[in-house]
Amino acid sequence: MTPARTWIIGTVLTVIVAITNIGIANGASDGAHLTAQRWSFDGIFGRFDRTAVQRGLQVYLEVCANCHSLEYVAYRNLTEIGYNENQIKAIAGQYEVEDGPNNDGEMFTRTAQPSDYFVSPYANAMEAAAMNNGALPPDLSLIYKARAGGADYIYGLLTGYEGEETEHSVAEGLYYNPYFPGGAIAMPKPLYGDDVEYADGTTASMEQEARDVATFLSWAAEPKLDARKKLGLKVLLFLIVLSALLFASKRKVWRDIH
Ligand code: HEC
Asked: Does ligand 1 have an atom closer than 6 angstroms to the CB of 64?
């Protein structure tokens, strides 16, 4: 093999190895060390597993939505994870939103529409805190990005409740969780397994539910991830071809000079 060819192959391999490793590295968090999980959306070839995102939506709606809002996601965004208009109308139709004022100047409630954002379980932040012993359950729209560890953190947190609180003395109204910075969280263990009956028949173990809802929340924070990665691949391919062309023309131009 000529040195030139070795050089090209070497460069291409290096780029591929570097790129496919992006996304595997994890930020550190203050809590216990997180175990890195395998996610379908890891790495440059990663894509959201739609069935997992859909199951995660079910877990969010049936469990987490009792306490957490998701204010940057609208019902109509669910088309991106494979729901059709009628299904979305049916999902939104289970909720009521306050609207108005009407012609009499009064606020009124109506059934939620696909264009509405996910309905919050609370009227406002004060009510949210008051209903949770003073701790505000954060909005989950961007939590995947807001916490070091991303999906690994969400998974670790949900599956990480262990032992009796008495074993690890935490204050009244708090629960021991080694993954939460400080170890004492105001959220009671939300998942036990069999909290939902999956529409697709998957067994609803606690780990499965945690994985699915972590996948769903990752999608909620990064809905354009699939498109972004597809574009990235195209750009990469273009750059590789361009490098090869430039290299070939350089050789041609300098051919006669020794
Ligand atoms: C009974 C109410 C309740 C339910 C149900 C609940 N949470 Fe929470 N959650 C809370 C509260 C309260 C906090 C704030 C905890 C704190 O700051 O100590 C919280 C915090 C969190 C956090 C942020 C932790 C951090 O690093 O700040 C995440 C992530 C989270 N919840 C995810 C979920 C998911 C996913 C579900 C559904 C499987 C869920 N929660 C169900 C009440 C709840």
From this structure: yes
